[in-house]
Structure prediction request, 280 residues.
Amino acid sequence: MSRILVTGAKGFIGQALCKRLAKDHDLITLDRSKGDITDPKIFLNVESVDHVFHLAARTFIPDSWQETTEFLNSNVIGTANVLDFCKRVNASLTFVSAYIYGKPETLPIKEDTLPRPNNPYALSKYISEQVCHFYANYHNLDITIIRPFNIYGPGQPKHFLIPKIVNLVKNGQDIELFDLVPKRDYVFIDDLVDALIKTSKLKLQGFNVFNIGSGKSISVQDVVDVIQEIAGTSLDVTCKEQKRLQDLDDVVADISESFMKLKWIPITGFKEGIKKTLNG
Prediction:
């Protein structure tokens, strides 16, 4: 039985991942209750492990514009500390990054597309990836980067789009949103966890990068319509027609690399995922 460390174990992704890993792995977890990921001392009492899933991070994009230094500190320095731990115990690493491509010139977006981070959160993840790449090259660590597009599912914090709409629908409240036009590539939490687990089971060597998405995009309006259809509601929807800072019109993940090397494809359709989210 392999021993695995998960940082950010109490976050949205962390809880779903740990629930699956606990079934057949010796699991060690780190979360904020055990210390700050930016303090290397947090790892002093952590036993040697075979693999690390690094999820701990500041994540909410609007906050990153107001707290840029804090995001860079938590996400970049935290990742460097994790890498130092991996180097010390000779563990492989799966780093959960983010959508870092900025405004795409073509769709779908491949992993070799030049990253153009368009918000401080994406910037912090991009820099963290560079640190990972350095450690893979100069310390011979096996590191896999996972770039999830828009994740959703039961347990996601309510300030994100889908749980916000679900919460309004469940409470019978009219839906007021900033912009109904932007399209995003949504991936269900269980499918993301499948991909993460494959990165450790396959024991990939060297430095690898994978997009994780559905391979198609859905507009905010479509998201609202699907949620209301499944919930059986017809609440009023109003739009402020106000774009978020540096928002994007459309993103679609090219997931062919994940299919070829990870043997992964998403199996949860959007309507099925929304049904599970509503019932979660």
About this structure: The longest strand covers residues 143-148.
